[in-house]
């Protein structure tokens, strides 16, 4: 038996197990990318079709967002699955038509029931189009060279796995900068209402906290990668990479890198911003004795609130960019 298929699909015959096999095309966009969908977190990412075709058939794909690993055939998007199901439905209809046609030709009947069947030409339905999220930016993995695109924060390459810590940090800081820039496009009346509610203040504080977290993760990852035995050195030191001077002491002693001595790094500003973040996380944003020990030139007094502005957050991002590039070597 042969099957009629829509444009974009073809009948490939039977496999060794006797199953009917079909090939269904998955079209790429105008940039050469096509979609993949993680079976666990169900987030969409895109890969360049030419790069994908060159990969081995037994490829284990990694979700860029959650890091789930599974056979690449499991990362089919819902729209791609609809194309596959359309071909399967058409094939099933033709199999049914063939079976009923056989009944009709045999003229089966008895005194109670007579079965007749008149075959009709079968025309396969067109395959559904794919209209998935469009490419925003092409990324190229520095490890394997694969081209891919994501639509959210990610830490993995679809092929080579975990990304370099420096690359993750740059992406995260870039996202924080873009978030602050987006606030400038909010219309005036809405800005006034959000400002009155303290939304911009909260965003500035949250951004500062996230910047500190980015630096901490990068500093730890690089130290553990480059220093042996890092585990023994860091034992009992707690969140040492949240404390700037302790971080600098570690890098200076074990990697001969002292960020305090780099001209582009404003260490005084950094320590003030880090102390501000600590006060907002642990003291409700109020000045305490620990803050004044670090920022001993401050005119604020214990119990006063430390205001964090958008400029403070932007300065933290700029300084963190420099600091991360130094720590990553």
From TrEMBL:
Residues 1-21 are annotated as: Disordered. It comes from the Bacteria. This is Zn ribbon nucleic-acid-binding protein.
